[in-house]
Every structure is written in structure tokens, then in C-alpha cells.
């Protein structure tokens, strides 16, 4: 029994130490040319190795591990590793939540791989373990220097508002102070993304600058590229990542940063058959990670959630103005 417990503790401890060692290694500026945190080797291969280690030691004493345990036991070192990065402030809540599903999945794949090798290929298991442990560090330099999977995509959301286009248009450029209760609880707020506070325009028309202010001191500009009153307002983002406080957004997902940046966006307005306004919000994003579909899923999820919050705010305000106008009209009769 003690041997079994030791196998569990050894596999978990080594997995956690291994993960933290690679996390700290790729934080060193001098090593950025041969590895990094926003890489396939760290996001996918490193947790595979941690899961492999956990089951490698467990299966030395228990060769009859069920597939369920091969899948779930690797989550132990992953969760302790994540906890350690949170406690030491190596990672913030946004990065942790975005990375956790990938970490757990690939740790399970590593665990199942180690369990199958234990059953059907018992020889040279320690040599296999060493190869798996070194694999992320061997792949990282190739990825950093020769692989680029950057892509650009657009996120679009719509909402129907029971108000005329001119009433909705009045809500878009200048956005007065947003009270906390005006924004629903959303995924973005739950994972730590700051909420918008207000937006102001220095002028009207193409070339004007719209300044958006969010919580935690986040301020960025949007330069107007198209201006058609009651129909369209588009803009390109002008974001200085150095002006965004470090504690506002995790550095790996900082707006305008090295890996993730909104490029341009805007609102378009149209009327449906009932005379209501259909308000559309689009944002085009640049994704400079190598995570492919995984990072796109997160990018679309977060921006769709954010879009919906803004569109609901515009709907609430515009319909409130329209209702007040109708009431005033009735009172004058």
C-alpha cells in the first residue's frame, strides 16, 4: 500500500515540478529564441508529458489500471501545477481558464499513452519517459523559428431593437457612464476581463477618434474610418499595449500585444419589416498564436460574449429613449 501511495505522490510531484520548470524556463528573455509559453510545445505537449509521468509511475505498481484512471489521474498534477502558477502569480485568471481544457485533455492523452505502453511494451520504459520529458524542449525551437499559424477572422453579432435608427445611432458614438447593473453577468467578466465604463468622441465623421475606457485603467482609441449617420460607423483600433496596466489583462492576451489584437470593427444599422432597427457589431481579430482552432474557439467565444453585452446595453438604452419619447408625445396631446 505504501508503495502504491509513493507511486502516486512521486508521479504527481515530478509532474508539477516538471511543469513549473518549463514554465520558468520559457520566461527567461535570453531563451525566447528557442522556446516560449504561447507555443504548441507548452500548451499541448508539456501537459501530455505531465500526464505521461503521472501514469508511468502509477503503472509500475499497478499494471491493471483502468482506462478511466488513465484519463483522470493525470489531472492531479495538472491541477496542482495550475494552482502553483496562480498562487505565485505566474499566470492570471484569463490565461488559466483558457489553458485548462487543453491541459487536462492532453494530460489525459499522455496518461492513456503511458498506460498502454505499460501494458504492451514494458521494456525501456524509463528511456521512453526521458524522451517524452525532453520532447517539448526539442520541438519548441523548431516551432518558434519555422512555424507560423497566424490568422485573421471576424466575429459578428446582431440584435433587434424596438427603436428607430436615429435613436439607436445616438447611443453609439458617445457612450455615457455604464453603471455596473447595466451589463449582465457574462463569461468575459467571470474570467476577469475588465468591463467597459464609457466611450467618448472628439468629433464626428471620418478621422475622428473614439476613446474607450474600461475598468482597471484600460484605455484605447478607435479611429473612425466610415461615418454614415443612422447607417454605419466603422473604425480601426489604435491600441498601445504598453499603456494598458499589467494587472488589467494577462500579458499573453493583452489587447494589441504580441499574440492577440483586434484590428478593426464597427456598427451597421438597418430596418426590418416591422420598423425596428437591426444593429450589427463586427470585430476583426489577428491571432498570432500557433494554437489554430483552439485559440479561435476562445477568441470567438469571448468576443461574441462581449459583443452581446454591448448590444444588449445599446438595446436597453435606445428602447428606453424611444419609450420615453412616446410617453412625452402622449402627455402633450
Name the features:
Alpha-D-Glucose-1,6-Bisphosphate, Chain A, domain 4; 9 helices; alpha+beta; 2 domains; 333 residues; single chain
Describe this entry's structure for a reader.
A hairpin with a 5-residue loop joins strand 6 (260-271) and strand 7 (277-287). The mean pLDDT is 89. The protein has two domains: 2-146, no CATH class; 151-332, 2-Layer Sandwich (Alpha-D-Glucose-1,6-Bisphosphate, Chain A, domain 4). It is built from nine helices and seven strands; from the N terminus they run H-H-H-H-H-H-E-H-H-E-E-E-E-E-E-H. The chain is of the alpha+beta class. Helix 4 packs antiparallel against helix 5 (93-120). A seven-stranded antiparallel β-sheet has the order 1-7-6-5-4-3-2. The chain is elongated, with a radius of gyration of 25 Å. Helices cover 49% and strands 19% of the residues.
In short:
The chain is α+β, with helices and mostly antiparallel strands.
Number of helices, where a helix is a run of at least 4 consecutive DSSP H or I residues: 9
Class computed from helices, strands and strand pairing: alpha+beta
CATH topology assignment of the largest domain: Alpha-D-Glucose-1,6-Bisphosphate, Chain A, domain 4
Measured on Cα atoms, how large is the radius of gyration?
25 Å
The portion of residues forming beta strands comes to 15-25%
Record the SSE blueprint.
Elements: H1 2-25, H2 40-61, H3 67-72, H4 75-87, H5 93-120, H6 125-146, E1 151-161, H7 165-169, H8 187-190, E2 196-201, E3 209-214, E4 219-228, E5 232-238, E6 260-271, E7 277-287, H9 293-332
Antiparallel strand pairs: 1-7, 2-3, 3-4, 4-5, 5-6, 6-7
Helix pairs in contact: 1-2, 1-4, 2-4, 2-5, 2-6, 4-5
Amino acid at each position: 500500500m505504501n508503495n502504491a501511495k509513493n507511486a502516486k505522490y512521486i508521479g504527481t510531484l515530478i509532474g508539477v515540478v516538471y511543469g513549473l520548470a518549463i514554465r520558468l524556463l520559457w520566461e527567461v528573455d535570453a531563451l525566447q529564441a528557442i522556446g516560449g509559453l504561447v507555443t504548441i510545445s507548452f500548451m499541448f505537449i508539456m501537459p501530455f508529458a505531465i500526464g505521461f509521468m503521472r501514469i508511468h509511475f502509477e503503472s509500475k505498481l499497478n499494471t491493471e489500471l483502468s482506462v478511466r484512471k488513465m484519463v483522470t489521474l493525470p489531472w492531479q498534477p495538472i491541477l496542482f501545477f495550475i494552482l502553483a502558477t496562480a498562487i505565485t502569480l505566474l499566470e492570471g485568471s484569463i490565461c488559466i481558464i483558457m489553458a485548462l481544457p487543453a491541459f487536462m485533455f492532453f494530460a489525459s492523452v499522455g496518461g492513456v499513452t503511458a498506460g498502454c505502453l505499460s501494458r504492451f511494451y514494458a521494456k525501456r520504459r524509463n528511456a521512453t519517459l526521458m524522451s517524452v520529458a525532453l520532447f517539448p524542449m526539442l520541438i519548441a525551437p523548431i516551432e518558434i523559428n519555422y512555424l507560423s499559424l497566424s490568422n485573421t477572422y471576424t466575429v459578428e453579432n446582431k440584435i433587434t431593437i424596438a427603436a428607430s435608427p436615429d435613436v439607436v445611432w445616438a447611443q453609439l458614438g458617445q457612450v455615457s457612464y455604464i453603471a455596473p447593473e447595466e451589463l449582465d453577468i457574462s463569461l468575459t467578466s467571470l474570467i476577469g476581463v475588465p468591463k467597459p465604463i464609457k466611450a467618448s468622441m472628439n468629433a464626428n465623421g471620418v478621422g475622428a477618434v473614439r476613446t474607450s475606457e474600461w475598468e482597471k485603467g484600460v484605455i484605447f482609441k478607435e479611429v473612425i474610418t466610415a461615418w454614415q449617420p443612422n447607417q454605419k460607423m466603422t473604425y480601426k483600433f489604435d491600441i498601445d499595449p504598453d499603456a494598458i496596466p499589467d494587472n488589467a489583462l494577462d500579458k499573453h492576451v493583452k489587447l494589441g500585444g504580441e499574440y492577440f489584437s483586434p484590428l478593426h470593427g464597427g456598427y451597421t444599422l438597418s430596418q426590418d419589416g416591422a420598423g425596428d432597427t437591426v444593429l450589427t457589431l463586427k470585430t476583426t481579430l489577428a491571432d498570432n498564436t500557433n494554437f489554430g482552432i483552439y485559440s479561435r474557439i476562445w477568441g470567438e467565444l469571448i468576443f461574441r460574449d462581449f459583443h452581446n453585452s454591448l448590444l444588449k446595453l445599446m438595446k436597453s438604452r435606445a428602447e428606453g429613449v424611444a419609450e420615453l419619447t412616446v410617453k412625452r408625445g402622449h402627455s402633450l396631446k
